[in-house]
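User: You have something folded?
Assistant:
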Amino acid sequence: YTTYKTNKYHLPLLKIVSITSTNMTFVVASTYFNSERTNNFEWALSKMKGLFVKDDVLSQLIVTDMDLVLMNAFETLFPSLTNLLCLFYITKNVNAKCKIHVYKDEE
């Protein structure tokens, strides 16, 4: 996932995390970018890909936060991976879109 200028350096931060068989998360890699461009993401993802000795060790699934630049970089470097959207962001977007259609009872 990426955070956009919410850190003390005011730079986009890419953090790549994974999950173990015991449902524990761990950081695989993290890096700051000077801008959120596809080539920056492709560079970081290619470095991460280089950490794996065999291609069959790579995950077949990624979860992103709907960052189109990140999704495009994944598509370029890992075309066979399935991309799912993070449940947190799906819920956030559904709530935002439904709020205008749901009326609260006035007390």
About this structure: The longest helix spans residues 87-99. The chain is about 35% helix and 25% strand. The two ends are 41 Å apart (CA to CA).
